[in-house]
Design a protein that fits this description.
The complex is a heterodimer. By secondary structure, chain A is of the alpha/beta class. Chain A is built from 7 helices and 10 strands. Chain A has one domain (about 30-55, about 80-215): 3-Layer(aba) Sandwich (Rossmann fold), CATH 3.40.50. In chain A, helix 5 (about 140-155) runs parallel beside helix 6 (about 170-190). The chains are: A alpha/beta, B alpha+beta. Bound molecules: adenosine-5'-triphosphate (ATP) and magnesium ion.
Chain lengths: ~220, ~800
């Protein structure tokens, strides 16, 4: 499902270029879940952003299915995100001026596969049924993150990229969100790549990798 | 397609949650469009009226034969010339008074009227067919502009009127026979119209008639044209200023709307909307909003124009004698142009934000420093640009010739000053921070600097509005002082009258000489001529201590009055002196008479040049000169008695005026002239206030992260609100203080550059500190009012929202 070869990325800094990823290789099979750990600043978010096509790599290739993201232009990467990739961030990135229901439906609508029945199932499973008419600012952090997760699953992505999705939540609500997400991953059979600092959460996934010195250990 | 739709709904949903921001954006666009299109409407309307007036026979569109000085002659000349093969057509012109209004009577002879003199336009000329029924025979129907027909309804002693759109508003056109009866000039004509395309007749003019008839060519580029053009340029400049101020609002509204929706735009990008599509969707949104605002703005412009039109009409009539109807009728193209301006203005103002969106990477982090660095760079560019513009302004004003250069200088001055404002304010605020003691005071100044970038556009708008206000105010007040003073000196005779006929004049003169109450009779003579192709009025006045003691002069030679009394010298009006570059002591030739210029006097508001000389000299040089008005000096306190006696004894009607009434009339004309300017001034000020309000409102939300830490550290919400208010007032105060030198520069440019180029006279430059104080107070008040709402909501803000600042990462 996801194949990364000799991926390289450096950021320009006042002290010269900072090489963050240095020839990284990774293979994730379809339906597999994988945790990505590593010290703060090791480049985990950078990797995720590259896979999502939010930023462009300096070298190497990233294949999602048959498609090499590094060869796509902005519109092509946007289309790939729209159709196949779901993103969940530490900050919830909801649209503040839309209600919970509209936020849930938003990405699926954009992808052109809005399915009200599926959305209702998701809202039910995530415990959002009674919150549908509220606005994001009227929700707690855990509730907001559940909306973000619901929004992602509503479009039935092939690949979900999550960057510390529970990082802003306390342990209890974090665990609750995590369980809900993993159940949905199992049910829909999508590929799941999650960045986390918690070995305990990482243990819930099929496979664990660690980013050290710009490569996977 | 549906993707675009969903993205658009998400973007638009922002406005539903922030209706005030939407109001600001729409309001800004609307005001900008309204002011611009309103002024354009006034200009277009007035211009159309002149064109119409020029097309009628009363204008100079057709060449004609007339006597020097426009003296009437017998209609037998017409018959003689026709017999000699001259294709002439007689015209009699004159004025009558109907209550308050002056009407111009134009008598024509339809059968001989040259084709070029027939009115063109959408309506067919009155010469064609059935229209002339009842025109050349009883009931002697007359034609008039539809407004005039409506205004004169029910008026006694007029022939039946037929509406004719092509005519100037104060004109009554009738058969020459009817006009002769109405003007009490039986058998007289004032001009003979010629066909511009005619070939020269076999008989020379001198053989056909003994009268010294002059051939007057068409004069489409005449004085009226040039002067009214300058009035329009004035209005256009004001309209442009208003539009610029409006665009400031639009620009800041759009920039803030983008800034506030940045997280949402990033989310949309992360969710798979490409940069191109996002930009496209924003463009569609902007197009929709600007179309709505444009339509509303054009309607607003119509309202403004309709409200100001009577003042503009009065101005043009009073200043230049141009007839313009006081009502408005506009074409479809005007409406479309107004809407187009709104859309284009919005697109222009949004260009930078759209580009930023298009280039924006979906990730947030890297850009912040880059943006800040770009901002700093831009400030430097802005400062350099400002200095360049100010230099250009100085060069244009001091060295360039012409009205357009004057206005270009003015525009450069205003724009340069506006660009210079943010750096100047930053300097003041930095100085304030340096002098501040105590943490709150230091925060106050530091925070004001940070806020500057968000407020600078609104403050620039305020600066422009204030600068223009002070500039125009200084000019108008200076003008008013000078003009009033001049009127007081010029209108010294207590009573003025103008006899209807020479016999009447002799009778009144004999009577007046016998009155003890009347201490002096000061008759005048008028003639017209041309000097260097310019039309010049020649006035003969009676030498008398009245003039010697009180005639205000711009420049005068020693013994000037004695030399003018002997007939060797004349006085020239300032306009004439400017146009012909005359100076005191110079010798000029007037219709073969050589005289020295002994003095130059101001003659405000008169578009024509004027020469004044001793009356008996004028009678000799211009045998055809007409009798002008006569001034009477009256013994103290006897004015009303003399007037009543004259009213009883002589049939003078409106031709008997007391000085007070004349002064009142002149001052009225003057006030009308500047009523439009004053109204536009007020509007511009209102726009600036609106800009400030809007910026403060939008900023107030973005400022929570700055304020929350202070609140957490123990400053109450009320305290915070107070600090915010103080900061806004301080910024407005500094801006207003900086506007004073700008306003004075604008005033100088208007008085010493633009006015001289436009009208031919220079105004004295007076300072009016009282006006500045009032405007500074007004600016601070405007800022206070604009800040009221946002600050009140800060005072009442639920603590939850402040706490959120610490929990939300954004
Ligand atoms: N836009 C940028 N410009 C310059 N350097 C950057 C930029 N973004 C990230 N970096 C640097 O790249 C390195 C990797 O950053 P990244 O955000 O990928 O780390 P991370 O592993 O996600 O850390 P954390 O666990 O703290 O989230 C860091 O040293 C960071 O300082
Ligand atoms: Mg990270």
């Amino acid at each position: 499902m996801l194949t990364i070869r000799t991926l390289a990325k450096a950021y320009p800094t006042p002290q010269g270029p900072l090489a963050v990823l240095r020839g990284l290789d990774l293979d994730v099979g379809a339906g597999q879940s994988l945790s990505l750990m590593g010290e703060s600043g090791s480049g985990k978010s950078t990797l995720l952003h590259l896979v999502a096509g939010l930023d462009s790599a300096d070298g190497g290739s990233i294949h999602v299915g048959e498609t090499d993201i590094t060869r796509l232009d902005d519109a092509g990467r946007a289309a790939l995100r729209r159709q196949r990739i779901g993103l969940v961030f530490q900050q919830f990135n909801l649209i503040p001026s839309l209600t919970v229901a509209a936020n849930l439906a938003f990405q699926a609508r954009i992808a052109g596969r809005h399915d009200p029945a599926w959305q209702n199932t998701l809202a039910d499973r995530l415990g959002l049924t009674d919150l549908q008419d509220r606005y994001p600012e009227q929700l707690s952090g855990g509730q907001q993150q559940r909306v973000a997760i619901g929004r992602t699953f509503a479009m039935r992505p092939d690949l979900i990229l999550a960057d510390e999705p529970t990082g802003n939540l306390d342990e209890e609500s974090g665990d609750a969100v995590m369980h809900l997400a993993l159940n949905l991953v199992a049910q829909t059979g999508c590929t799941f790549l999650m960045v986390t600092h918690s070995a305990r959460l990482a243990g819930m996934l099929d496979r664990q990798v660690t980013l050290v010195q710009g490569r996977l250990a | 397609m549906s993707r675009i739709w969903h993205a658009l709904t998400a973007l638009l949903s922002h406005w539903r949650r922030k209706p005030l921001q939407l109001t600001a954006l729409l309001g800004g666009l609307m005001i900008a469009t309204a002011l611009w299109s309103g002024v354009q409407a006034l200009n277009a309307q007035a211009r159309e009226s002149y064109d119409r007036a020029a097309r009628t026979l009363g204008g100079d569109a057709v060449p004609s034969l007339a006597l020097p000085g426009g003296i009437e002659f017998d209609e037998s000349v017409f018959v003689a010339l026709r017999r000699a093969g001259w294709p002439v057509s007689p015209v009699l012109e004159g004025t009558i008074r109907l209550g308050e209004t002056r009407m111009r009577i134009l008598g024509i002879e339809p059968l001989t009227l040259p084709a070029a003199a027939r009115m063109t336009g959408e309506t067919s000329g009155p010469v064609d067919g059935a229209l002339f029924e009842g025109f050349m025979a009883p009931p002697w129907r007359a034609f008039a502009h539809p407004d005039t027909v409506a205004a004169l309804a029910g008026e006694e002693g007029l022939p039946p009127l037929t509406a004719q759109r092509d005519l100037a508003p104060t004109l009554l056109m009738m058969d020459i026979g009817a006009a002769q009866a109405m003007l009490d000039s039986p058998g007289r004509i004032s001009r003979l119209l010629l066909d511009p395309g005619m070939s020269a007749p076999a008989t020379p003019l001198a053989q056909a008639t003994d009268l010294p008839l002059e051939w007057r060519e068409t004069d489409t580029q005449g004085d009226l044209d040039r002067l009214t053009k300058s009035f329009h340029l004035n209005l256009t400049a004001f309209g442009l200023l208003a539009f610029l101020v409006g665009l400031f609002i639009v620009y800041s509204a759009i920039a803030l709307a983008f800034e506030q929706r940045l997280p949402m735009l990033r989310t949309l990008r992360a969710l798979g909307i490409s940069a191109r599509m996002l930009t496209g969707v924003l463009l569609v949104e902007l197009l929709t909003l600007s179309l709505l605002a444009g339509i509303a703005g054009v309607v607003g412009g119509y309202v403004i124009a309709a409200a100001l039109m009577p003042d503009v009409a009065a101005s043009l009539d009073g200043l230049y004698g141009a007839d313009v109807p006081g009502t408005l009728s506009l074409e479809l193209s005007w409406w479309l142009a107004g809407i187009a301006i709104s859309v284009l203005g919005a697109m222009g103002a949004a260009g930078y934000s759209l580009l930023k969106t298009y280039r924006m990477p979906p990730l947030a982090s890297a850009r912040r420093q880059a943006w800040r660095a770009a901002q700093r760079g831009w400030l430097r560019v802005q400062g350099a640009l400002a200095v360049l513009l100010l230099i250009a302004a100085a060069v244009l004003m001091l060295f360039a010739e012409g009205l357009v250069a004057g206005f270009a200088g003015l525009a450069a001055l205003l724009l340069g000053a506006a660009l210079l404002l943010p750096p100047a304010l930053a300097l003041i605020l930095r100085a304030g921070q340096g002098a501040a003691r105590g943490p709150i005071a230091q925060w106050f100044w530091a925070d004001a600097q940070q806020q500057l970038s968000g407020l600078s556009l609104a403050l620039m708008a305020l600066l422009l509005a204030l600068g223009a206000n002070i500039g125009v105010g200084t000019m108008v007040n200076g003008f008013r002082d000078t003009f009033t003073n001049w009127l007081d000196q010029r209108l010294v005779a207590e009573v003025y009258y103008n006899a209807r006929s020479d016999e009447d004049a002799a009778t009144i003169r004999a009577w007046a000489l016998a009155q003890d109450d009347i201490t002096a009779l000061l008759p005048t003579l008028n003639a017209t001529t041309r000097m260097d192709g310019l039309p010049v009025t020649v006035v003969g006045y009676t030498d008398h201590p009245t003039y010697r003691t009180s005639w205000p002069m711009v420049a005068i030679a020693p013994d000037a009055f004695d030399r003018v009394a002997t007939g060797e010298a004349v006085f020239a009006s300032e306009q004439l002196a400017t146009r012909l570059s005359l100076s005191v002591g110079q010798t000029i030739e007037i219709d073969g008479w050589t005289a020295t210029v002994a003095g130059i006097y101001p003659d405000y508001g008169n578009p024509k040049g004027q020469i004044s000389a001793e009356i008996t000299t004028i009678a000799k040089v211009f045998p055809t000169a007409r009798r002008g008005g006569t001034g009477l000096r009256v013994a103290e306190g006897r004015t009303q008695a003399v007037i009543s006696a004259m009213r009883e004894r002589f049939d003078l009607g409106d031709n008997l005026i007391d000085q007070a009434a004349l002064k009142g009339y002149s001052k009225g004309v003057f006030e009308d002239t500047f009523a439009v300017t004053a109204a536009l001034n007020v509007l511009t000020m209102g726009v600036a206030g609106f800009a400030l309000f809007m910026s403060l409102l939008t900023l107030s939300e973005m400022r929570l992260p700055q304020l929350a830490p202070l609140w957490a550290a123990g400053v109450t919400r009320r305290g915070l609100a107070g600090l915010e208010l103080l900061k806004t007032l301080a910024m407005a105060l500094f801006t207003a203080l900086l506007a004073i030198p700008l306003g004075l520069a604008v005033a100088w440019c208007l008085v010493a550059v633009v006015n001289v180029q436009a009208f031919g006279w220079r105004l004295p430059f007076h300072l009016f500190p009282g006006q500045w104080a009032a405007l500074v107070a007004l600016a601070v008040l405007t800022a206070g009012l604009a800040a009221l709402w946002p600050i009140n909501s800060l005072r009442r803000m639920p603590p939850v929202r402040l706490v959120r600042v610490f929990t939300d990462e954004r």
